[in-house]
Every structure is written in structure tokens, then in C-alpha cells.
């Protein structure tokens, strides 16, 4: 009998975490959950602990961790409850762990994901900010440890599948002319520009194709999500900004494409369900059943593609600007966006204020070179401070 793979799920109560556990539950002969982690949702994490009986459960919120510990003690589970970022790093790098699903949303996922890379774990990367904020540091850690890196974002997973099998990180040597990153266009793809100022948080979170958390849903509505993915693609596939093209594809059936110098374009298609890329990452290079229905091409009938409108989606332009600037610019942009989205969700700023805030922070703070993680964290803190001040002035 094959040894069970030890798995840590960072962010198990989010949409990616829940989908990961759905796939894992289908293959009890392959995977053993070592640790589950969450920020504040202790009730859901407790339910997950009852089902998967992990060795550890980690919460970032201290009050939530105490509630979870009480629930686990009452239930008689052997799961040990830990709290804080250091505990996240511990369960990401423990010897018993073979793979880490990095699905914590935001900058909070950076340290534990980096810890997994330094420990040589197989990393299923669904946390955008690790590459956006600290791409060079993270990729250097992956190369140094030999950590297998599997992108889980549906777009990057599709690109990974469409690249040459032994891709060396050299577009030219691989015969690749361009990476085509598809985007749904979100809920406001066809909304009159004059109506965007009045957009509500609930409208922004109503994604037409995907079920996601509120922060990511707003990022999709502004297309900052796609901007972050452009920066991710740069680091994952060693591709310059000019070789990454965003293609708005409303049906979300083609998850991304790779264009080759001979005129070929290879695409990965599938129903919009994150369990497909998650299963691919968990079992690579094998393929396992994921609970996803096969694509019905006759039902789809048509596929549409349009160029992105940078006037409608200025956040996408800001992401390309940050990538081309380099250094701490992507970290500054990411931090400003997190503050802006939170302020919008709490109805403190308007939808169109999100790109205005980010642009002002990028104009205000200089982009510096990144040599150590502290450079990134300092830029992140400065941008958050500047963004919060911007919100206060509104």
C-alpha cells in the first residue's frame, strides 16, 4: 500500500480550501490531512476537523482559536489547536507534510507559503500575493530547495498544462511567442461606464461564472484579479509583460492558452470548477477524479473573445505598470488594493475610487529594489498606511 500524502491546507474555510477538501475526501487512500488553518471561522474549521481529524488546526484570530479549542476538547478530538503566523509556518514546513495547499487570501499567506518553499514541500499555489509581493524571493526559494510548484489558479494551471512538458523557463527555447491569459470580464463587462460610480458591494460580488470570496469577487469586478495574475504569470513562467496578453472570454470555458511560434495555440478547456486544477495539482503528473462534470461542447455552442478595455478596467493597466516598474511596486499596488477593496466593501469609498486610490499610492511611494523579505513587508506596511490615510480623507 502506498504511503498517504501528508497535506496542510492553508485557508481551509475559504472557497479553494473547501474545494480542496472535497477532492481529498474522494481519495482517502491517497491523502492524510495534517493541518487545517483559518482566520476566524472556528465553527466551519471545527466541522472540518470532525471530518478529517488533522493533527493540527491553526487560527490567526486568538478569540476564535480559544473557541475552537473548547469545541475540539468537548468533542474528544486529538487535534491540537495553535494560533498565529508562526504556527502557520510550523504546519507548512513540518517533516510529516508532503504538500501544502496555499489558499490564504491576501498578504497573510506570504510567510507560511515561503516556509513551505524553503522546506522543499510540494506547493499547490492559490495565494496570488506570494508571487505578486515577493516573486523573486519565493521563486529563488523554490529553485534552491527543489520544491515542486503547481499553480492552482485556473488560468495558470491551464498555462502549465499547455506548456511543453519539460518547459525550462525559456519562452524562446520552448517555441512560445505569447501567453494568453483569459478573463471573464466580471459582472460589469457591459455596464455603461456612467453607472459604475454607483455600483454596490453586492453587485460587485455577483460574479457570473465563479463562486468566490468577497475580496476576490471585487478584484474580478475591477479586473485587478487579472492584473495580479499577469504578475504571477511573469514569475511562474519567466515571461516579460509584453509576452502576456489578457483576453476577455465571458464563458470562462477556455481557462488560458499558450501561443507558439509555428502558429499553434494550445488551450485548456473545462467547466468553471476549481476542483479540476486542484485535483491536477494534488496528483500531478497523474490525473484523478475531481467530482467535476465533463464539458458539454454542444451545450456551450459558442465561445467569445474580446480585448480588455483599459478605460473600463484601469486596475489592469495599473498592474502592468507595477510589473514593468518592478521592485516593490507590485507589493505597493497589492497592499493599496487590499485596503481599497476593504473600504469599498464597507461602503467607505465608491467602486471607481479603488483604482484612484491605488494610482495615488503608486505615485506617492517610490518603488525600491527587493533583496530580502523585509523589503517587501516594509513596502506593504507603507502602502497600507498611505491607503488608509487616503480613505480617511474621503
Protein model, in words:
- Helices cover 46% and strands 15% of the residues.
- It starts with a strand and ends with a helix.
- The mean pLDDT is 95.
- Helix 6 (128-145) links the parallel strand 6 and strand 7 (149-151).
- The radius of gyration is 20 Å and the shape is globular.
- The protein has 394 residues and is α/β, with parallel strands linked by helices.
If you average the pLDDT, what whole number results? 95
Going by CATH, the architecture of the largest domain would be 3-Layer(aba) Sandwich
Q: Can you identify the CATH class of the largest domain?
A: Alpha Beta
Low-confidence regions: none
* CATH fold call of the largest domain: Rossmann fold
Question: What's a quick, concise take on this entry?
Answer:
The chain is of the alpha/beta class and 394 residues long.
Relevant terms:
394 residues; seven-stranded parallel β-sheet; four-stranded mixed β-sheet; 16 helices; globular
Outline the fold blueprint.
Elements (H helix, E strand, L loop, with lengths): L4 E6 L4 H11 L5 E8 L3 H11 L3 E4 L2 H14 L4 E4 L1 H9 L5 E4 L7 H9 L3 E4 L2 H18 L3 E3 L2 H9 L13 E8 L17 H4 L9 H9 L1 H14 L6 E5 L5 E7 L4 E5 L5 H9 L13 H4 L13 H12 L3 H17 L7 H12 L8 H21 L1
Parallel strand pairs: 1-2, 1-5, 2-3, 3-4, 5-6, 6-7, 8-9
Antiparallel strand pairs: 8-10, 10-11
Helix pairs in contact: 2-3, 4-5, 5-6, 6-10, 6-14, 9-14, 10-13, 13-15, 14-15, 14-16, 15-16
